[in-house]
Amino acid sequence: MGTCGIRDQIKYLVKNNFVHVLSTTIGAIEEDIIKCFKAFVLGDYRASGSILREDGINRTGNIFIPNDRYIYFERFMNTFLERLYSLQKEKKQIIGITEFVKELGHEMEIQNIEKKEESFTYQAYKNNIPIFCPALPDGSVGDILYFFKKNNPDFKIDTSDYIVQITDLAINCEKMGIIIIGGSIPKHLLANAALFREGCEYAVYINSGLEMDGSNAGAPIDEAVSWGKIKSDALKVKVEAEASLVFPLLIAAAFKLFKV
What we know:
Elements: H1 2-15, E1 22-23, H2 26-34, E2 41-42, H3 49-54, E3 57-60, E4 63-66, H4 68-91, E5 95-96, H5 97-110, H6 120-126, E6 131-132, H7 140-151, E7 157-158, H8 161-172, E8 177-181, H9 184-195, E9 200-207, H10 221-227, E10 230-240, H11 243-257
Parallel strand pairs: 1-6, 5-7, 8-9, 9-10
Antiparallel strand pairs: 2-4, 3-4
Helix pairs in contact: 1-6, 1-11, 4-7, 5-6, 8-9
């Protein structure tokens, strides 16, 4: 969801320590970082894919992402991976996914990226807020890792540490509330962790998914109650709406109401 226009709201929450954890896709993280190098372009949902391909432009909805943005990101990542690889060989330790993402924020500081303060990845690093990203290779990061591992086949990332981290956090917190924007793996990771504490006490879903489409996002909130992921007496609601419109309004109204 960071691609579609709520990046600033996410950064606001993280920068001000209004959330304890984030769960997201690697696409949101890498595009958050890319925007620190060069902005994306407002395009058209109906633009021709063939013409865009010829012009070296990738389309995400009505957002255009020219190929040169990924050149900046690839340079950033290759320097980052070389540093991690050196640390792995020096310390004889394999980095976990959550630490990998945290180090991305650290790398922005090391490379002194000019617009790093605009990044929620960087703000999470500064405030020691973990970002959980179960499908780390599912994006440009995975493409870059493919070539890096061809040259450095002994480079490893632990893909199991994060499940212990998120579950321990869920078990040990006094009360748990989740705000789920969209769906897919990031949604299920948080909800499933809540199962280990017999459900969370607060839950807000914001998405346009329908139950009939069989998607993760389309599931009604009561379905999670049946699994024990949300308590039966929890304060819970599903807002069926376009999240990029509703979430900024929700944040503005909440902090105006409570004068934060």
